[in-house]
Amino acid sequence: MHRIPAQGRPWEALKQELEAAKAGDYAWRRGRLAVYVYYLDEALSRVQQEAYAAYWTENNLGQRAFPSLKRLEEEVVGMGLSLMAAPEGAGGTFTSGGSESIFLSLLAARERAREERGIAGGNVVMPNSAHLTFDRACWYLGLEPRRVPVGAAFRADPAAMEAAMDGRTIALVGSAPCYPFGVFDPIADLGRIARARGLWLHVDACVGGFLSPFAAKLGHEIPEWDFRVPGVTAISADIHKHGMAPKGASLLLVREEGLRRFHRFESRAWQRGPYAAYTTQGTRPGGAVAAAWAVMHYLGEAGYLDCARRIMEAKAALVAGIEAIPGLEVLRPSELSLFVYRATDPALDIARVAAALDRRGWLPGRQQEPDGMHLHLNPVHRGVEADYLADLRAAVEEARRGAVERMAAGRTY
Ligand SMILES: Cc1ncc(COP(=O)(O)O)c(C=O)c1O
């Protein structure tokens, strides 16, 4: 069992130990991960670190003590609202990540349904491509998740979703885009259903929130998904994904500021006095807000456009290169930074391709359905396409060679 050492050790030695501990991790600065990490360059990393460090002690729970954090948070929320075309009077909350944004949204939907419709609990109808965090939130909140198979082009099927609704439905969900396939759900259709039934419509733009507005400006075709769509009640958008901020930064945005009260806790039921919070966290790191604020101002619209351009160029190069390899195909459509490819040749085992890529230092993202490979690109991938494709060609060769050798040896696996 690990114990706190009796005596401390000098920071220099510990620092070296931490650096050494990373030696076996995947080389994300060289683009070897297409998941978990969003990296532009060392200059942006410095901004992230120094801005975080400027507020590394401050606690964002105590905005009375740190009015500067309150102001920074309001500015970050405001920038998110305007990016997502929120109407006058909209509101938002800075959270620790996409999961917390989603939890708070479903909590608010539940509490609104309790207050306005007298429903305790209830169900949430979503396409089965919605992030599993929705199931996790339902589990925490005593709600029933109703997952409905996606329709054509891997998009939510509004008619099938409507068929799954009943008098206990409190919310519906669409993604912009969904994580498994990178496609946008038909948010306008979901908005019509939500309005007709008076339901909370959550749009999960954890991936797309800080990327699709810029990709659209670059001329990429992006379906409407934000507050311009009537019926959209709430949006989750992660600043720590394509917003390029360090981890611990997301937004839950709501069409009307007044809706935030449905995820606000307040009580005086203890000796210390009143306690109120809009988030699941109590203590909140001031550094996360300061770093998000700094990154948004540092990049500006021009910087975000550059990130979007790099991602979309990397994607075009990778998709073309992958499709030039016999036996592989890229799933279509895929509208943003995410895509999936799979083997069309039954003799080519994609699991073996994945293992061969892994041996070459690329963390493979394995898609379960259909059996394939999943990539979520970030700006660092512009420039590593040729390396990836060379290793992928070699991995495919290796998998094919292995299959021939196994057959010759009379083995079937
Ligand atoms: C579409 C989508 N929604 C929600 C989440 C959950 O976000 P987080 O991991 O920041 O909690 C993710 C994470 O990848 C996501 O891709």
Can you describe what's shown?
- The mean pLDDT is 97.
- This protein folds into two domains: 48-297, Aspartate Aminotransferase, domain 2; 300-408, Aspartate Aminotransferase, domain 1.
- The longest helix has 38 residues, at 286-323.
- α2 (42-54) runs antiparallel to α9, α4 (98-117) crosses α5 and α9 packs across α11 (385-408).
- By secondary structure, the protein is of the alpha/beta class.
- It is globular and about 75 Å long.
- The protein starts with 10 loop residues before the first helix and ends in a 5-residue tail after the last helix.
- The protein contains eleven helices and 13 strands.
- β5, α8 and β6 form a beta-alpha-beta unit.
- The strands form three sheets. It has a seven-stranded mixed beta sheet, sandwiched between helices. Strands 10-11-13-12 form a four-stranded antiparallel beta sheet, with helices on one face.
- Bound molecules: pyridoxal-5'-phosphate.
- Pyridoxal-5'-phosphate binds at residues 97-99, 131, 133, 175, 179, 204, 206-207, 238, 250.
- The site of pyridoxal-5'-phosphate has 12 residues, from α4.
Number of helices: 11
Could you name the CATH topology of the largest domain? Answer: Aspartate Aminotransferase, domain 2
| Whole-number count of domains | 2
User: What is the share of helical residues?
Assistant: 25-40%
With strands numbered from the N-terminus, the spatial order across the biggest sheet is 1-7-6-5-4-2-3
Radius of gyration: 23 Å
CATH architecture of the largest domain: 3-Layer(aba) Sandwich
Unreliable spans are none
- Number of DSSP-assigned strands: 13
The ordered string of helix (H) and strand (E) elements is HHHEHEHEHEHEHEEEEHEEHEEH
Could you tell me the strand content as a percent range? 5-15%
Specify the biggest β-sheet.
Answer: 7 strands, mixed
Shape: globular
Q: Kindly report the name of the CATH homologous superfamily of the largest domain.
A: Type I PLP-dependent aspartate aminotransferase-like (Major domain)
The structural class is alpha/beta
What's the overall average pLDDT, rounded? 97
Q: Enumerate the distinct ligands.
A: pyridoxal-5'-phosphate
Taking the alpha carbons of the first and last residues, their distance comes to 40 Å
